[in-house]
Amino acid sequence: MAALLLPHLPDYFNNRFHLVFMTVWVIYFFLMEVLFKTTLGKRMMSIKTVSDNKEEPVTIVRYFLRSLVKCIPMINIILLFNKNHKGLHDYIASTVVIER
User: Fold this and answer.
1) How far apart are CA 93 and CA 96, in angstroms?
2) Rounded Cα gap, residues 67 and 78, in angstroms
3) What confidence score (pLDDT) does residue 4 get?
4) Which residues pair with residue 47 across a beta bridge?
5) Whole-model pTM above 0.90?
């Protein structure tokens, strides 16, 4: 997969370290959320991710979308400019982070 993406990425990704780091980043967040319904940081802060629609569970696809979008640099700046304090990854996956 990385070999397919490499020619299409900006110049600052010419170092393969970035691709490895981003892959590990996505896998960490995805697996932690799917398997344990939380990450280490969320567990320490006593928060969890739930669906915008409280009646339906967060699906594997939503967890994967959240993990992918988190890789975009400076993406969480949107948290400062909306009243719900949701990141772009929350809007795309229709999720919200709440206290336990």
Assistant:
1) 9
2) 16
3) 67
4) 99
5) no
